[in-house]
Give the backbone structure.
Amino acid sequence: MKKQVIYFGLIILILPFFVLAFYIQPQNDDFHFAMSSKEGLSAFFSKYYFNFTGRYFVVTTAYFLNPLKYDFNMAMIGLKIITISFLLSFWGVLYYFFKNILQTNTSKITESSFLYATFFFAFILYAIPSLSEFLYWFVGANAYFLPIIFLFIFYSFLFRYLFDTSKYNIFLYIFLQLLNIIVIGCHELLVVFHGAILFFLWTHHYINTKKICNPIFYLLVIAFIASCVMISAPGNFARLNAIDTSGQNLDFYAQKPILKLIILTLYFTISDVGNWLNNGSLWILSFVFIPIFYQIHINFKLNIQKIIHPFFFVFLSFMLFWLIYALNVRLGHYQIPRVQSLLYLLFLILFFCNLQILASYIFKANKIDDNIMIVFVSNYKNISKNIMLFLIILMIMPSAYLVNSAYYEIFLVAPKYANFNQKRFIEIQEAVKRKEKSIKLEQTPKALKSIFLFHEDFKHKDFYYNRNIAGYFGIDEIDIIQNKDKK
């Protein structure tokens, strides 16, 4: 009965995010990328790789996946399908990840993997700083959410490969190398993060066995080569030059001298990590995962005492995160909500890695008998489900702001928001049919602005969003009628 209640609570938590996907609207750079894609893949890729970014994989997916590239009316359906596909893919890969780190095919563990994955999935949806830019906007989801999905896919298959030592599968390893190249080509921050995790796994294996783990070593080699291709892209230097010469507030921090930049990034790192750690739900979640920590400890044969003290690992994790923040600020990205969402997910991964290191250290340091631990973990699973149920109730309670906001939006805000935007697009299309070269549109009322659905409103005819959408539809300009001027 308790399990059914937990699943029912999780459905209540997750459902609104799938419903909101049906109200997603094309925004801003969706139109810009769609226009650029008309030049063909080679020209599209060259334009961004040589002038803006080295993220060779997400540039490619932006070309093929953007539904606006094919047809506007079909894109209204395509954007919804892509958003729901991203959600289902992340949910599915979390399940596969938990299944592989728990390493057993029994139906009981399979069910536990699904439960833990679903709970973690629900937690992430409510904890991410900006779902609007991270999920409900194609360009943002492609550049920031899709990389996280591939990061989890990579490590899911890596753990499956490493556990199956009796018969190394060459085809699986080739697939791993392909995923390795994809992850590096997704984002500059993943170059640092992914490389650090691979290096730690390789070091752990070498210290424990006194043997070099060739599969991980060659993954590191290919990751290094892919990183060189990604980092040395002319577009990266063009973007840095634009940041250094611009006066935009967005790039303010990136223009500071190196010493001030170091101090600022240290402050940002401490501030954000402190805020994220000051989340009671996160600590409750960590107690839910205690059975998983022990199972990983057994499966990976973790011998942390030989490698690193947990406190030193905390220090190294912080230094890694500080380095990621320094890179992020240097790229002029610190204030962007979608980047904050990516940083938060990387923080979550490091947070649970640190808890795993601490748990394994405690298991080894106290020389706890395995039989005692097996009994404890078996009994604790019921406690874990009680904690899970408690956290779900806290999140569903009437005082829970985000749950209330999500349901308020799917019933009262999102439908009106979608209808308003669709009417504006119909006005534009009718103006195109009449061969008009300019059009005036009503500004979005504040009451229709969503906290979940991404919305970059029209401002004035020279605003870059207006230029993007005008160019996409083939008209000269779009101007805005301010609400205060409406009778």
Observations:
- The two ends are 58 Å apart (CA to CA).
- The chain has one domain: 25-379.
- The first helix runs from residue 2 to 20.
